[in-house]
Amino acid sequence: MAVTGEIKLEERARKPPLGLRAQILIGIAGVTLFAVASAGILALWAAGDSLREQREATAQTLAGAFAASASAVIDRQVPLDSLRNRLPLEALMRKLAERSELLGVSILSRARVVVLSEPARETDDVDVSVVAAVLEGVGPVLHYRTGPGGTELLAYAPLDVQGAILGAVRIAIAAPAPVPGFMARQGPLLAMLALGDALLIALLGYLVLTRLVVRPLQDVERATARVSAGDLDQRITPAGPREVAALAAAFNQMTASLALQREQLIRTEKLASVGQLAAGVAHEIGNPLAAILGYVDLLRTEDPRAPLSDDERRDVLGRVRSETQRIHRIIRDLLEYSRPGREEVAAVDPHAALDSAVKLLEPQARFRGVEMRTIPADAPWPQVEAPRGRLEQVFVNLLLNAADAMGGSGRITVSATTNDA
Questions:
Q1: In whole angstroms, what is the distance from residue 163 CA to residue 137 CA?
Q2: Are 367 and 403 in contact (CB under 8 A)?
Q3: Is the peptide bond before 340 cis (omega within 30 degrees of 0)?
Q4: Element (H, E) at 147
């Protein structure tokens, strides 16, 4: 009991937690999720570069356009920060500041002093050194910086009024990293799309695996269970992929080989029992042969002076005939038992098969002191589905073993009962 429990526990531990189909589908779903997510992220990085270039081009265009518009309304005869110049510049700045992506617009003098700003700049908002190049007529120039609100893109352009550089303009645009920003906004949608793709591919894989792999393997499993139960005539129709069809063909070849080996084994066992019976048959034939020889000698050595009467002659010949028929019956039963026949499963009366086995064994010397008893003796026995020849062989082997165990003396009882369960 304890050993059996340990074996069951060990087998349970070795049993794989998931089936082949589940493991393949999990792998396909994982690969799909990884592929979709990777492709999405790579596409986002590529789109991020394009968005960055588009943002920089927009900033350069806005800075250049605003500088050109401001240069057109500036009166170079008065200072840049004079009221005559401030009013039209403020109108331009308010109109430009209406664009939602702009963080601020500023106008700088040649002394790098902030003349106008919309909105007002903080005291720590200092222009970078690239302004010096812009005030020399280079531009537009771009510069990224990180502030309290995140990354900003600054675009500088010179104020060129009739060939004279009077100052510069600065456009500030929010420039967050494209990929993190997109992931923050569209990450859940991307995850749902990846999950949907994985589920769709997993469903398709489930249908394909079930049809091409799982069902043929289940057929092999069921056929194997029938073979283990003794049905060696079980065959599988090769179907599905090449590998599965090859497995089915190999299974059919295996069952055919097992059936052939079983027939050979049964034949060998039968020949072994025939050998045991032959020894007893030889002994049994010897007695009637000796009697026949004695009757023949009696007829040969008949004394002419005292011849046998016709009745005596007929009696001697009748005895010779009886002993000859006895030899014929013994040899016929032995040949009938040893002859290979077509083993077909049919409804068989076990009592009749037992009688045939007993008649075959009665001439054996080891059975002269054995009494046979059947229960029930007169009532019909329930029929069984079995090959008649194999059932007789089973009875012969059992009776031989029983006789050897009793030393040729005793009673053998064979009973038949029905089991309704």
A1: 9
A2: yes
A3: no
A4: strand 141-147
Report how far apart, in Å, the C-alpha atoms of 162 and of each of 73, 92, 237 are.
Answer: 11, 19, 94
Q: What is the pLDDT of residues 147-203, one digit of tens each?
A: 777 788 888 989 888 888 888 889 888 887 766 656 666 667 777 777 777 788 878
Rounded to a whole number, what is the distance in angstroms from the first to the last CA of the chain?
26
Per residue in 31-89, pLDDT (tens digit) is 777 777 777 777 766 666 777 888 888 888 888 888 888 888 888 888 888 888 888 88
Average pLDDT of the chain? 76
User: Which single residue is written with the structure tokens 């265009």?
Assistant: 61
Q: Which comes out higher in pLDDT, residue 10 or 416?
A: 416
- What whole-number distance in Å separates Cα of residue 155 and Cα of residue 130? 10
pTM: 0.41
Q: For residues 103 and 155, what is the distance between their CA atoms, to the nearest angstrom?
A: 12
Q: DSSP for 205-257?
A: HHHHHIIIIIHHHHHHHHHHHHHHTT-TT------SSHHHHHHHHHHHHHHHH
CB 351 within 8 A of CB 416: yes
CB-based contacts of 199-203 (< 8 A; 24+ apart in sequence)? 199/29, 201/28, 201/29, 201/32, 202/25, 202/28, 202/29, 202/32
Rounded distance, CA 59 to CA 106, Å?
14
Q: Transcribe 158-205 into DSSP letters.
A: EEEETTEEEEEEEEEEE---HHHHHHHHHHHHHHHHHHHHHHHHHHHH
Extended beta strands in 240-305, E state: none
Give the confidence band of 8 by pLDDT, cuts at 50, 70, 90.
Answer: very low
Residue 7: pLDDT band with limits 50, 70, 90: very low
Strands (DSSP E) found in 250-289: none
The token pair at 335 is 């040949």
Nearest one of 222, 240, 242 to 231, comparing CA atoms: 222
Please name the residue that has the structure tokens 């499963």: 345
| pLDDT, position 274 | 65
